[in-house]
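User: Could you write out the 3D structure of this protein bound to S-adenosylmethionine? I've included everything you need below.
Assistant: Certainly. Input first, then the structure.
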Amino acid sequence: MFKEPHWREITVDIPAEHEEPASAYLIAQGAGGIWVESNGPRVHLHVFFPIEEKEKVGALGKGLRRLLPKGSVSLATALRPEEEWQTAWQKHSVPIQRIGKRLLIGAPWHFPLSNRSHREVIQLAPGMAFGTGTHATTRSCLIFLEGLISRSARGALLDVGTGSGLLSIAGTKLGARRVTAVEIDPVALAVAKENAKINGVDSKIVFRKTVPSGARYRWGVANLTAPVLIDLVEILSRAVRPGGNLILSGILAREGADVLARYRPRFTLLRKMRKGEWITLLLEKRKR
Ligand SMILES: C[S@@+](CC[C@H](N)C(=O)[O-])C[C@H]1O[C@@H](n2cnc3c(N)ncnc32)[C@H](O)[C@@H]1O
């Protein structure tokens, strides 16, 4: 069966010593994550952009050639359906990914990496839990969290559907004072606890099977599905304090209006991020 392409994969082939400036440039140009493949003295940086962003290939080529020594860069491009894109990422388990401006994610065996960019490092043992940082919904949540959380903004984060624990761990690394991670699947919960330990942040994260009823959080994130987000509207709305933010993800573009309609009475929509067929909503809770 013909699978409709959703993604334009751009593979940048460069000398290994230029990986850092090239990655920083690609992220500044809107790449959500980079899969880095070592190839001896050269590296391949794989980035994905929505199919409609045709002009990206030429623009990235020009930008990289300006940035790096003459003759050192070559670019290849291919169109990928959503399924193939997901398989490509999963095949590489937890690839090394630079997400946003402050996060670097990889499997424990990738580290210690020379972290010249001073990013916050997250080591993930993938196990049987969703959340390696490669899925569009997870990456959108991470990018929104990075924009919200800083060390100067003291606050607590609620992560509902924590899976591998990635968003909770990222929350603590970005500066959240404490995190409550909620997960109904006992296997995922065990993986998340292990990942928190590996990253040395287990003392900052409380793991639970349900959202605590009395607590109010400065930030909430829920990467679930549209029907579950609609079911949880009362619980999630109550959990975020007035003026706080809620990130909702795991929503197919065609489901966005329904989810938003349920949250709109108490929240204002600040931003909507679309990656392929997925959208992520950034909301702010009204003060009154
Ligand atoms: C799409 S994964 C997200 C994992 C991770 N937060 C990420 O962003 O990559 C959704 C997770 O939510 C969990 N889940 C589903 N319904 C839930 C609920 N009502 N309460 C808590 N967790 C739930 C699933 O078991 C799964 O691990």
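The chain is about 30% helix and 35% strand.
User: Perfect, thank you.
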